[in-house]
Amino acid sequence: MEINKKQGYFHGIVVLIIVLMDLFSDYVYGGDKQLLLNFQLPLNFHRIIIYTATFTTYAVNFYVISPFTLGKKHYFRFAIGVLILIVIFGRVRYVLEEVILYHFTGQHNYFEESRRFLFYTFDNSYFAVKGILYSTLVYFFFEFASNQNRIHKLEIDYNKAELSLLKSQLEPHFLFNTLNAFYTDLIDEQPKIAKDILRLCQLLRYVTYEAGTEFMPLSKEINFIEDYIYLHRKRFEDTLFLEYNVIGTVGDQPVPSLVFIHFVENIFKHGVVTKSTFPAKISIIVTAEFISMETSNLISVSEQYAVSGIGKENLERRLSAIFKNEYELWCEQSEDVFSTFLKLPIQLKR
Q1: Integer CA distances (angstroms), 108 to 40, 87, 100, 345, in order
Q2: The model scores a pTM over 0.90
Q3: 329 in helix, strand or coil?
Q4: CA geometry: angle at 112 spanning 109 and 115, to 5°?
Q5: Domains in the chain, ordered, with CATH?
Q6: Which alpha helices (DSSP H) does the chain contain, by range?
Q7: What pLDDT digit, counting tens, does each position of 248-305 carry?
């Protein structure tokens, strides 16, 4: 709401500047007499109509054409959009001037031959450029300001995460040295337990040391998830019912660190994973364009899921700072089943 209000004020200033520039132009070329004509009856309806057509194309470009073309880096589509805007300008002016105003005055501004579609549109392209140019520049300005704001928020969140990481690293060597000692003692006599301890070490080391950066290779995130699931399988033994699938080629695609584990952890923390008739499900799909993760699980009677909460808000804020509106995230509770879906683009370069 605050951003929209600021945009409204800014647009108002741009409109005022355009009008004042035209008035100043009248003064320069015609002096006081030409300037004062704008404030005398009868009103200059032709100029009012030009303003109406200009600000119509301005609004359409700012709110529709630019976000869906320049916002997605589709420059050829933007060029087509400019042609559409010129047509819109011409049609708005034609209806207001050659139809409505003519109905009241009985006079056309253009003679009959020049009112044909192609000529009229081409002749008005010069006037349409002003609204298109101003709205494009304003769009780029707000995009720049929005990107700077996202970067700033991302830096703040990263610094907070880094501080939390530093706090969690207080004397971590003691823990790892102890686990390594257990591993060494058990590797010969109880190799299975020793391997489980090693896997636990790998999981803790990843969280403590490696995942401190903003992005991690997808392969490492998947390994982390699989280690996490493996340890829970050891915990539940034969009573864990979980369907886990990864479809696609897992490589070094950069993904935000520790995002996917958020959904996996919630399944084990709040969900039911011991019911054979309704196993929990985790599905990860990797394509050339995106990575998606879908989960579903029964809800524990003792737990109350919150579709919106601090965890989800923080996650959305982080993803919005990184991907803007190029990601998809939803959570849904249907009776006793909780489902989530996350889809991230992977064209982002580190």
Answers
A1: 22, 20, 10, 54
A2: no
A3: strand
A4: 70
A5: 41-162 (no CATH), 236-345 (3.30.565.10)
A6: 2-36, 45-60, 66-69, 75-93, 102-105, 117-168, 172-186, 191-208, 218-236, 261-270, 310-323
A7: 999 999 999 889 988 998 898 888 898 888 999 999 999 999 999 999 999 876 555 5
